[in-house]
Amino acid sequence: MKHNIRYAAGSDVGRRREQNEDAGYASARLLAVADGMGGHAAGELASSAAIAVMRELDTKLPETGADLEAALEGAVAEAGRRLVELAEIDPARRGMGTTVTAMLWDGYAFSLAHLGDSRGYLLRDGALYQMTKDHTLVQSMVDEGRITEDQAAVHPRRSMVLRVLGSEGRADPDMALREAQLGDRYLLCSDGLTNVLGPETLHEVLTTLADPAAAVQRLIDLANEGGSPDNVTVVVADVVSPGEGDEMVYRVGAGA
């Protein structure tokens, strides 16, 4: 049976940054988070360019019959081409890049695309699962058995990303196709959230606040209370029965 999603999203500059280089998007069938990097405001441009492509995909995609994986992977590739073009226009932008974590939804399943260290989580039957794997130096060290997960969480180089969507050329995203279930709750977020809040806190908020907008607000507030050294972007979406209305709340900037 086809389902709807009820969703909310928010973005905050955090406590220590002067500008927000994160970008996000949420609609009834596409959710996305991008965390930009690069000097001279190039990070903000990179994330905005990637989200602009996602918005275009949402607008142009037919309502039925779309190949979810092909459509989303194609959008990520197009975003990569845009970054290359932007860097060619202005050499100061060379080296800019952005993470991309996005979900494309058709009422039955979703395609998931992922590059970088933003994350996607699934809350199902009371258990929280991380759907994505960080493309970072410390995650590769964990995979190789050189450090533990606990050590990775406090490692001084935990923010070093190995795979992003960048102006230096194409990077292939991790792709997955997942069947959704009624009652599922999804969280997409930039690392500004997960570098401050652990999985136990994420689980507590996602299981105790039924309203997606309230959950988004609480997660951003807790990150800021924890010092928020980076920008924080959060998208929460619930799989609901047909006929239950979609909603969307999007906050940009501290105090917005």
TrEMBL record:
Keywords: Hydrolase, Manganese, Metal-binding, Protein phosphatase
GTP-binding among keywords: no
Pfam families, alphabetized: PP2C
Entry's Gene Ontology molecular function annotations: metal ion binding; protein serine/threonine phosphatase activity
Catalytic activity from the UniProt record: O-phospho-L-seryl-[protein] + H2O = L-seryl-[protein] + phosphate; O-phospho-L-threonyl-[protein] + H2O = L-threonyl-[protein] + phosphate
Record-linked PANTHER family: PROTEIN PHOSPHATASE 1L, PROTEIN PHOSPHATASE 2C
Protein name per UniProt: Serine/threonine protein phosphatase PstP
Lineage: Bacteria, Bacillati, Actinomycetota, Actinomycetes, Streptosporangiales
